[in-house]
Specification:
Layout lengths: L8 E9 L3 H11 L3 E2 L12 H21 L12 H6 L6 H52 L12 H11 L4 H6 L5 E9 L3 H11 L4 E7 L4 E2 L6 E2 L1 E9 L9 H12 L3 E3 L5 H37 L9 H19 L7 E9 L3 H14 L7 E4 L18 H11 L10 H41 L1
Antiparallel strand pairs: 1-9, 1-10, 2-9, 3-7, 3-8, 4-7, 5-6
Helix pairs in contact: 1-10, 1-11, 2-4, 2-10, 4-5, 4-9, 7-8, 12-13
């Protein structure tokens, strides 16, 4: 009937051999149009459920790989060449594509785990290096203004003595004398800059103001191993009076450590002397360079794997990963249709098909049965009596009329053999579209015309 009315539909039964059902349904879908009724509507068992589950897992892997490819700079998936894929769809086999996807998925998962570990180690080395640099700067500042230390004081106690003097120099005689009898300790680490104020307030309230916290901004952002986002961080040093007995950890030290743990920040050892700090800085720099070298090697591996997935499968075709995606969608549609069939040796299902394509359907079934699989034949049995159920609506379209038919189908499908409004939409839609934007043009033109009149009146007034 064309675009004016829907096609005349016929009802029948399609019978397929179970061993070649997938191939027959594939070629039927490639050459003709057919709609199947669900013969297993009341049954909980679907014969091809396992295939659907396998394809669901393959599609999940493809979504994961596509998400990972978006993180690769310059990665672009070539798509929208469906016709070329359909012409070469037989090149792909379900088992082969599944095996390759599983292997690539394992490689990417292993890479992500290794990359997360390497990035975490590099960040830890970077953070500790910044803590050591802060310690060196603090010791250099103290050495310029420290008082004479007692002769009996060991070198390892140099910083504790200097820190206690610098923090309590403003106190009067008795208090200054007590600084030699108490030891000031510190806890240093790195935390995100966005948590800096909350961290300082929490420490102040938990310790009742008996701590002094110093922050030093890190200008180089660090990449979060879990999210991949860049995070700005700061070095913090918490100074407090450590009234510990012997080697036991003081209550203040334990309280501050718990607060650091609740914020999820990393704490690092504060070097005792400047010589130790400089040695640590050299060692940490070597660690950072080693981890960075390994990260670059992993990135090179990802780029090579991404290039293989983004490479067009054939000349003028889509990327390999896009063709795999379309292959999974095609196979899933085939097996979903096969789930509507019933039977064991032979599968059968009631179906609707255009009356004008009946001869073509029979020719396709005969040709496919005789050319490749003579012992496995399929048949289409047409109903002699008209069915009681109402036939589905099928309107034949082309590249031009398909757009207007989609506009009509957005608001509702015509009934079977009802006049199709898409024919009138071809004329009315461009007209109404032009009227709509023409009105906007009129609305924009009126203020412009009014402005011109005002400008003319102003010019006459000036003259």
């Amino acid at each position: 009937m064309g675009i004016l009315r829907s096609e005349t539909m016929k009802h029948g039964t399609l019978v397929l051999p179970v061993d070649r059902a997938r191939q027959f349904l594939d070629i039927i879908g490639s050459h003709t149009k057919m709609q199947f009724e669900d013969m297993n509507e009341k049954s909980m068992q679907r014969p091809y459920k396992k295939y659907i589950q396998r394809l669901d897992e393959m599609e999940r892997i493809l979504r994961f790989l596509l998400e990972e490819l978006t993180k690769v700079p310059g990665a672009e998936v070539v798509k929208n060449n469906v016709d070329i894929f359909l012409e070469n769809a037989e090149d792909y086999k379900l088992d082969e594509v599944e095996a390759r996807l599983m292997q690539i998925h394992r490689d990417f998962i292993q890479f992500k785990e290794n990359n997360t570990k390497l990035l975490g180690r590099r960040n830890a080395a970077l953070e500790e290096r910044y803590v050591v640099q802060t310690a060196i700067a603090s010791m250099a500042h103290i050495s310029h203004a420290r008082p004479a230390r007692p002769q009996a004081m060991e070198e390892d106690d140099e910083f504790e003595f200097a820190a206690s003097r610098s923090l309590l120099d403003d106190e009067e005689g008795g208090g200054a004398r007590r600084t030699l009898e108490t030891m000031f300790s510190n806890i240093a680490g790195v935390l995100p800059q966005e948590d800096q104020d909350r961290f300082a307030r929490t420490l102040f309230r938990a310790t009742r103001g008996n701590t002094f916290t110093h922050f030093q901004q890190i200008f180089e952002p660090m990449q979060d191993p879990k999210t991949g986002r860049e995070v700005k961080k700061s070095v913090f040093v918490v100074y407090f009076q450590d009234n510990r007995i012997g080697s036991a950890v003081s209550a203040m030290n334990e309280k501050i450590s718990k607060i650091c743990g609740s914020y999820g920040v990393n704490t690092y050892r504060w070097p005792a002397t400047r010589d130790i700090a400089e040695e640590m800085q050299v060692s940490l720099q070597v660690q950072v360079e080693d981890q960075s070298r390994l990260l670059r090697a992993h990135e090179s591996f990802v780029r090579s794997e991404a290039a293989a997935l983004l490479q067009p499968a054939r000349r003028g075709g889509d990327s390999l990963i896009e063709e795999w995606r379309m292959f999974c969608a095609k196979e899933k549609s085939i097996y979903a249709s096969l789930n509507h069939f019933e039977g064991h040796m032979n599968l059968r299902a009631n179906c609707w098909y255009p009356e004008a394509e009946e001869d073509q359907i029979r020719a396709v079934l005969i040709q496919h049965s005789s050319s490749q699989h003579g012992h496995s034949s399929a048949m289409l049995v047409s109903d002699r009596m008209p069915p009681r159920r109402k036939p589905p609506t099928y309107i034949r379209t082309n590249e031009f009329t398909g757009i207007f038919q989609e506009l009509v189908d957005t608001y509702g499908l015509p009934r079977y053999q009802e006049a199709n409004p898409a024919l009138f939409t071809i004329v009315t839609f461009p007209f109404l579209f032009g009227v709509m934007y023409g009105d906007i043009g009129h609305d924009l033109g009126l203020p412009a015309l009014e402005s011109c009149e005002n400008l003319g009146a102003w010019c006459m007034f000036e003259v």
